[in-house]
Amino acid sequence: MLIDLPLDTQGGTLADPFLRSTSVQGRASIDYQLYVPPGDSDEPRPLLVMLHGCGQTPDDFAVGTRMNEMAHRNGWLVLYPAQSTQANPQGCWNWFKTNHQERGRGEPALIAGLTREIMAAHRVDARRVYIAGLSAGGAMAVILGRAYPELFAAVGVHSGLPHGAVEDANGAMAMMRSGQPTRLPADGTAGNADRPTPTIVFHGTRDMTVHPLNGEQVYADATSGVAGVQRIENGREGTRAYTRRTHVTPKGRVHAELWLIEGGGHGWSGGDQSGSYTDWLGPDASDQMLCFFMAHPLGDNRA
């Protein structure tokens, strides 16, 4: 059930509506903000769910990633769930707890339920629903992509961590520091898919908060069991060099990408410095994620 609050407007150059509301699901509830591009559209629109990092708010995350600008340009809806400090004092998604790592439980169920409510209340293209996040939000996006492959067509992960590698806060800190799991992830993909969800990953090589090995493991999990070859490209965008790995299936489809940003820290590559945890010197992660998502509608990720 959605409880609508008055419309607000986002600051900056765009004056488009930002709907602030709450979803109540049984005994649980979650606040959120929804960016709706201007104008009426007869065609269903893509929906992107954006999960912020620790200590961030939806407003801050929207500014830092500039995702609303991208959505304005392309006619997308963007949903920003907000983590409650009652659920986590630092405002982190609880990706490291076992009761929040599975389908039908905890925060994954809450976010998936919210996504479905937005789809029911707005004109959304069910084949083009995506999820992305930063840091703890990136780790939770990985979980949602695995747990609900029939809902999310593709996943974007920035400075995130792999699914199921830890089971408590101590394990999370160790994983963040070293990139080494404290327990073996479960085999296979949770949900009803027979292969990993298409995934694009960004990670800075000098990330001192979440070790870059985590990004490499997310990419490895996304390509596990998927036939294909890996291609490597070295380039430069902005003032940072990058190495881009792509996993290409026998039919020529790019199933997964890994962007390692040389010298990048713990921040959204190509983001706006007005927001927190951004690295404005590197490639535009928001633009690249949308390009990746556009190429991966649900049901069209065959080999």
Description:
The chain is an alpha/beta fold. The chain contains seven helices and 13 strands. The strands form two sheets. An eleven-stranded mixed sheet has the order 1-2-3-5-4-6-7-8-11-10-9, sandwiched between helices. The longest helix is centred in the middle third of the chain and has 16 residues, at 106-121. The termini are far apart. 46% of the residues are buried.
Describe the SSE topology.
Layout: E1 2-9, E2 17-25, E3 28-35, E4 45-51, H1 58-65, H2 67-74, E5 77-82, H3 106-121, E6 124-134, H4 136-147, E7 154-158, H5 169-178, E8 199-204, H6 212-223, E9 229-237, E10 240-248, E11 254-261, E12 268-269, E13 278-279, H7 285-294
Parallel strand pairs: 4-5, 4-6, 6-7, 7-8, 8-11, 12-13
Antiparallel strand pairs: 1-2, 2-3, 3-5, 9-10, 10-11
Could you write a compact summary of the structure shown?
This protein is α/β, with parallel strands linked by helices. 25% of the residues lie in helices and 30% in strands. The strands form 2 sheets. It has an 11-stranded mixed sheet with strand order 1-2-3-5-4-6-7-8-11-10-9, with helices on both faces.
Query: How are strands sequenced across the largest beta sheet?
Result: 1-2-3-5-4-6-7-8-11-10-9
Extended strand count: 13
Oligomeric description of these chains:
single chain
The chain-level mean pLDDT equals 90
Beta strand %: 25-35%
Largest sheet: 11 strands, mixed
